[in-house]
């Protein structure tokens, strides 16, 4: 089975579509090859970095690397359900035929013998003129194409075959091939093709570089020769190795400030100046995807701009709340310091129209509903580990379905007196403003307080665990599931242990969702296309995060998936053609 070359959506403009661009690029892939892919490249462009990081210009918006190993693509096809497998296969066949078969190439016969272990595709931002760079060769079409451009980097195994095939490429359906030299590098590019202008170059006999415009080729050569590539971008070489893995399926990188500038210039949803300024503090987001026996793992890292005045507090003190909730817990989200989390949210979201909750509106809402000041009366003592959990229960006969789930909030504090004073104020608000009955009670011998609505239904309970963990239960009465401490906790269950990563350790936050049981018992709102099919293919999701240092955060995410035991081979190009003829 041939791995596809995946297209990347691009902003629409006067240039040809990326589908046509990559289709043309697929033609050149079949006629080029280069030197053996060396694991130890010059400088820090080693196997720990994104393939081609020393060629991709440093201002690239986005880059993604994918494996060329057919066995890994076959392994990917085994995850999910028959429905998701059919959808994946449809996309794989479409991409294979578009980029290879339609241009007369077969992956195993024409590509596999020379291509390296991974190929990388990057989207470049519009070029910024450089006085030091030689004057580039441009055409009228280039001027239109210079909005965004694409660069593909393919490490290959046989430089002799590459030179021979590039010297005698296949005849184009339209137009012709021309040869030119830039900075001592021979470039083969198309001319006269309707809506297409692509080129290829062999760099140092190591890499075949394919682009959708001559100027993009020049920018890649400049980046390689002048050491202004992604590998030298601030923080990239220091942070990307943190997520390196053996034989990953794919890797990606996002240039946050450059992407933010383009988003700010968008006529549809421009970013306000203050939001753009905040995003300039962030530099990059990168990730590695690997296929494991029971699912897919993503390791991620995000880092700040080296010139940013903002620093991160290295405080990783979470990882205990899963020992306080029962085994049947459907979802748990925990963090290390709620006060600090809120402060970070305010810093990055104030004035941002895309933020889910405006900080000032949230503060105002809390004040209006409770008369309490969010920062002074509540968050001031919420500096320890916190968690939010969903715990199911079997409702009593006649109870509404809304009470099949209990929402449990817990937070650890060292300031018990301040916490008690705030909680008592809440009791008074519920009694006087909302006419709730505030009733002291006991659960497993421990004192709690129930808030009972005017209709006599128990709606909330609050109390303390171990003297320093305040809790609030809303919805289903599940207090008896945490008091006393459950014999079988969420942390001891197989799904949690097999899903939630144990690294990084120590951690500042974890997440667990039992997708299988949640979907089976509770309806979920539709948020993304084909959501139900994706949920049906997923068993559980787990995440662990940590502050790596004062400039970066680490994330480890695992998605446990169902498997299709009997996978069928992809339709061959010949059979696909035959079926289309019929």
List the defining traits of the structure above.
alpha+beta; 20-stranded antiparallel beta sheet; 18 helices; 26% strand; 582 residues
Give structural notes.
A hairpin with a 5-residue loop joins strand 15 (446-452) and strand 16. The chain has helices at residues 18-29, 70-77, 82-99, 107-111, 140-145, 159-167, 214-226, 236-239, 256-265, 273-279, 338-349, 359-370, 374-378, 416-432, 494-499, 515-521, 531-536, 573-581, and strands spanning 60-67, 118-124, 149-155, 176-182, 185-191, 199-203, 207-211, 250-255, 282-292, 295-304, 331-335, 386-392, 405-412, 437-443, 446-452, 458-465, 469-475, 509-513, 538-549, 552-561. It has 582 residues and is α+β, with helices and mostly antiparallel strands.
Fraction of residues in helix: 25-40%
**What oligomerization state is this entry in?**
single chain
Give the CA-CA distance, first to last residue: 24 Å
**Whole-number average pLDDT?**
82
Number of strands: 20
Structural class category: alpha+beta
User: Count of helical segments?
Assistant: 18
Give the DSSP E fraction (strand runs of 2 or more residues).
25-35%
Apparent shape: elongated
């Amino acid at each position: 089975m041939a791995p596809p070359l995946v297209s990347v959506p691009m902003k629409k403009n006067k240039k040809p579509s990326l589908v046509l661009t990559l289709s043309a690029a697929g033609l050149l892939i079949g006629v080029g090859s280069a030197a053996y892919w060396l694991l130890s490249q010059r400088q820090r462009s080693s196997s720990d970095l994104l393939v081609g990081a020393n060629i991709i210009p440093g201002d690239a918006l986005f880059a993604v690397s994918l494996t060329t190993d057919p066995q890994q693509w076959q392994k990917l096809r085994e995850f999910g359900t028959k429905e998701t497998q059919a959808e994946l296969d449809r996309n794989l066949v479409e991409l294979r035929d578009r980029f290879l078969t339609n241009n007369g190439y077969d992956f195993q016969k024409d590509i596999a013998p020379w291509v390296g272990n991974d190929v990388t595709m990057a989207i470049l931002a519009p070029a910024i003129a450089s006085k030091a760079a030689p004057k580039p060769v441009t055409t009228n079409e280039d001027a239109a194409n210079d909005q965004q451009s694409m660069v593909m980097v393919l490490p290959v195994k046989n430089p002799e075959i590459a030179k021979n095939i590039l010297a005698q490429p296949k005849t184009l359906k339209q137009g012709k091939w021309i040869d030119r030299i830039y900075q001592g590098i021979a470039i083969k590019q198309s001319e006269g093709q309707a809506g297409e202008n692509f080129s290829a170059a062999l760099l140092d006999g190591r890499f075949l570089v394919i682009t959708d415009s001559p100027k993009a080729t020049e920018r890649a050569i400049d980046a390689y020769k002048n050491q202004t590539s992604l590998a030298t971008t601030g923080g990239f070489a220091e942070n990307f190795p943190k997520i390196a893995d053996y034989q990953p399926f794919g890797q990606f990188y996002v240039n946050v400030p450059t992407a933010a500038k383009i988003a700010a210039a968008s006529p549809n949803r421009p970013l306000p100046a203050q939001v753009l300024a905040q995003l300039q503090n962030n530099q990059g987001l990168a990730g590695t995807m690997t296929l494991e026996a029971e699912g897919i793992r993503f390791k991620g890292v995000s880092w700040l701009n080296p010139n940013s005045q903002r620093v991160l507090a290295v405080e990783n003190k979470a990882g205990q709340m899963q020992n306080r909730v029962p085994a049947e817990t459907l979802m748990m989200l925990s963090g290390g310091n709620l006060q600090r989390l809120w402060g970070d949210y305010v810093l990055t979201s104030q004035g941002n129209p895309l933020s889910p909750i405006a900080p000032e509106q949230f503060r105002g809402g809390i004040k209006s509903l409770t008369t309490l000041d969010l920062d002074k009366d509540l968050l001031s003592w919420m500096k320890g580990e916190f968690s939010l959990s969903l715990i199911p229960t079997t409702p009593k006969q006649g109870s509404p379905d809304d009470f099949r789930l209990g929402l449990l909030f817990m937070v650890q504090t060292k300031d018990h007196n301040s916490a008690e004073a705030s909680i008592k104020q809440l009791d008074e608000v519920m009694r006087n403003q909302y006419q709730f009955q505030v009733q002291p009670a006991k659960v497993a011998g421990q004192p709690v307080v129930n808030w009972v609505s005017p209709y006599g239904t128990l709606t909330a309970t609050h109390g303390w665990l171990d003297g320093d963990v305040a809790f609030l239960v809303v919805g289903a009465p599940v207090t008896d599931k945490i008091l006393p401490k459950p014999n079988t906790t969420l942390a001891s269950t197989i799904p949690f242990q097999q899903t939630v990563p144990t690294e990084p350790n120590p951690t500042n936050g974890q997440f667990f969702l039992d997708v299988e049981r949640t979907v089976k018992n509770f309806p979920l709102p539709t948020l993304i296309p084909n959501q139900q099919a994706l949920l049906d293919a997923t068993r559980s999701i787990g995440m662990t995060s940590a502050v790596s240092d004062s400039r970066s955060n680490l994330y480890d995410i695992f998605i446990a998936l169902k498997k299709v035991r009997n996978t069928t081979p992809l339709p061959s190009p010949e059979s696909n053609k035959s079926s289309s003829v019929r």
